[in-house]
Amino acid sequence: MQLNDPGLLRAQAYIDGQWLAADDGGSFDVTNPADGSRVGSVPDMGAAETRRAIAAADAALPAWRARTAKERAAILRRWYELILANQEDLAVLMSTEQGKPLAEARGEVVYGASFIEWFAEEGKRIYGDVIPSHGADKRIVVVKQAIGVVAAITPWNFPIAMITRKAGPALAAGCTMVIKPAEDTPLCALALAVLAERAGLPAGVLNIVTTNRAPEVGGELTANPVVRKLSFTGSTAVGKLLMRQCAGTVKKVALELGGNAPFIVFDDADLDAAVAGAMASKYRNAGQTCVCANRLLVQDGIYDAFAAKLAEAVARLKVGPGLSGEVQQGPLINADAVAKVEELLADAVDKGAQVLCGGKRHALGGNFYEPTIVTGVTAQMRVAREEIFGPVAPLFRFHSEEEAVRMANDTEFGLAAYFYARDIARVWRVAEALEYGIVGINEGIISTEVAPFGGVKESGIGREGSRYGIDDFVEIKYLCMGGI
Ligand code: ADP
C-alpha cells in the first residue's frame, strides 16, 4: 500500500495525546480482505489501557468543555479540512483494510468529513430556553451542557464515517471521548486521530483504544462510572449486551443496530428508477450496510419485469479488489461473512427459492461472493428475518398495498425502508404506515449529514446527523432562580 503521507499509517494507539503500545506489548494484524495480506498491526489493548484512556478523557474534559463553541469549531474545521486534504490516502487505507471499491472509499471520506463540518457549526447553536415561571419571584432558565466523557464503539463497514458521526457532535458539544474501533478496521481510526492531533485537538480529548479483545475493553467502557454515555453502532446482539452492561451505572446509550430493510416496488413505480435505487441500496459496500435493502418486495404486476431488469444491471457489476480499476463490488469483510451469506442462500434454496443470477462464491476466491438475486422468496426463509450483510437480493411477491405494508413491518427491526410508487395518496399512506426511522421514497440512498439517521424498534435508540444529532451529547439543566 502506497500512501502519499506514510505518517497516516500507525502501529500504535492514541491515548492522552501519546502514541502507545499495549502494556504487555501485544498486537494483532490487520489484513486486506481482498487477498488476506497483512496491512499493518496495532496494539491489542485491554482494560488497564482503557481505564487510562477514560482517565485522560476525564482530565481533559473541564478545559475542553470550558472553551467557547466557536473555539472548538475552529479546531474541528481544521480537522475537517485535513481529512479532505488527505482524501486519497484515507481512501486507499480504507479500501485496503476494509475492501470497498476505491470510488466508494473516496465517497466515504467526504461523507465522513461532512459530519465534522456540520457539527462544528451546530455546536454554536446549542440554545437553551427561558420559561415563563410559575411564581412572580422566580425565573426559570434551561441550559444544555456537554454530557461528559463519551465512549464510542464502532463497526468496520464505514470505518471513518461511523467514527466522525459520533466524534463530530460529541466534541462540538464539549464532550471528550474514548473510541474503540472495530478490530477489522483500526487503521482508519488511527489515521483520523493523526489528523485530529495535527488540527490542534488537545491531548486527552479524543482517545483511540485498539483491541482484539472487544468484550474486555467494552466491559471497562460500560462499567466505568466516569463514562456518562455510550454511543454504539453494530449488531443488535452486541447492542443489547452493551445496553445491559450500561444499566449498572445508568449511562445514556445511543444505539445504531441492525436492520432488515424492505424495498417495496409497487405496480405504478418508475421501473428504471426502482432498479437503479435497488442497485444502489443493495449492492453498495457489497451489501454490508445496515440500511441495505434486505428484502425486495415487488408487486405481482411488475415482478417479472423488475426481476429481469435487475438481473441485467447485476450482470454488469464488476467484482474485484477495491483498489483495482473500475470495480463496483469488493470482497466481503472476512471468511465468516462469506460463510453466513452462503448459509442463508442455501436455506432459501432448500425451501424453494430460485437463483436468478450469482448464487455462489466468486471465481476470484477468498472473500469474494457473486452479486446474487433469488426469486420466489417467502417469509419462512431465513433471509426474510435475518440481516444478510452481503450482495444477495431476495425477491418477494405481493399483491396489495396492505399486504406489502404488513410484510414490510413484520420484523423486530425498524431502521430504513424504501418504496417506489407514483400515486401521491399511496405515497403518503405507505410512508406513514412503515414502522421505520428512515424511509426512502423513490430514492435508494438516504444517508447525509443533514438528516437524522436512526432506527425504531430493535434497530436502536437515538439519532445521528442533523440538528437532532447533537441532542444525544448534551444534558438539559433547569435553573430555578428564586427570591427575585
Ligand atoms: P458486526 O457484525 O458488524 O461485526 P459487531 O456488533 O460484532 O457487529 O461489532 C461492532 C463493534 O462492536 C466492533 O467494534 C466490535 O469489536 C464491537 N464488539 C463486539 N462484541 C463486543 C462486546 N462484547 N463488547 C464490546 N464491543 C463489542
TrEMBL record:
<dbReference type="InterPro" id="IPR050740">
    <property type="entry name" value="Aldehyde_DH_Superfamily"/>
</dbReference>
<dbReference type="InterPro" id="IPR016162">
    <property type="entry name" value="Ald_DH_N"/>
</dbReference>
<keyword id="KW-0560">Oxidoreductase</keyword>
<dbReference type="InterPro" id="IPR016163">
    <property type="entry name" value="Ald_DH_C"/>
</dbReference>
<dbReference type="InterPro" id="IPR016160">
    <property type="entry name" value="Ald_DH_CS_CYS"/>
</dbReference>
<feature type="domain" description="Aldehyde dehydrogenase">
    <location>
        <begin position="19"/>
        <end position="478"/>
    </location>
</feature>
<dbReference type="InterPro" id="IPR016161">
    <property type="entry name" value="Ald_DH/histidinol_DH"/>
</dbReference>
<feature type="active site">
    <location>
        <position position="256"/>
    </location>
</feature>
<dbReference type="InterPro" id="IPR029510">
    <property type="entry name" value="Ald_DH_CS_GLU"/>
</dbReference>
<dbReference type="InterPro" id="IPR015590">
    <property type="entry name" value="Aldehyde_DH_dom"/>
</dbReference>
<dbReference type="Pfam" id="PF00171">
    <property type="entry name" value="Aldedh"/>
</dbReference>
<comment type="similarity">
    <text>Belongs to the aldehyde dehydrogenase family.</text>
</comment>
<protein>
    <submittedName>
        <fullName>NADP-dependent succinate-semialdehyde dehydrogenase</fullName>
    </submittedName>
</protein>
<dbReference type="InterPro" id="IPR010102">
    <property type="entry name" value="Succ_semiAld_DH"/>
</dbReference>
